[in-house]
Amino acid sequence: MDTWELVDAERRDNVALLEGLSPAQWDVQSLCGEWKVRDVAAHLSSPANWEVLPFALELLRSGFNINTATERDGVRRGQRDTKAIIDEFRGTIGKRRKPPGTSPETVLNDMVVHGQDIRRPLGIGREIPEDRLRTCLDYVVNTNLAVGGKKRAAGVRLVATDIDWSHGDGPEVRGPAEALLLTLNGRADALSDVDGPGKDPLAARRS
Fold first, then answer.
1. SS (H, E, C) 104-143
2. How do residues 32-64 score in pLDDT, each as one tens digit?
């Protein structure tokens, strides 16, 4: 599969996840900042439906802080009916649109990590397909765009214990590929699933 095909496969899996949530689960706090599950779910549609003017206005209202603008956009989108959120997200399957300066790998990383932002607090386990994990890991250790993964990975050796993947030099950090990916994306919840002498330096770069 090429990366866009992986994106669509991940979108389908996340649509199935959202369709199975109870009303109470939609309002559980996610792993992603101040967002509830509904806000993360609503944000999943944004890469494919990105529009210059609405986001520019949100950026202006947020003092040109892109993270704040993104957070507010997610909350705004998340206030809608859950069926509308799911229907909009389902409609992104097959789309190849993305924000300027990003790549299909950026979108895939967003889909995989935000899916886990929803699943982990809800106690919903998942085995992420290896090709998606590997593509995201190879991407995130080589970019600081949005998530700062390259900065976090510097000076440590990352070793996945469940797939054949490693990266870097230095004190070792070992753990499942999913936990390494979430840690590189700044999710403290995944730190308990990794170990090794490089864990503390990696944890210190979480923010």
1. HHHHHHHHHHHHHHHHHHHCCCCCCCHHHHHHHHHHHCCC
2. 988 999 999 999 998 888 665 666 566 666 565
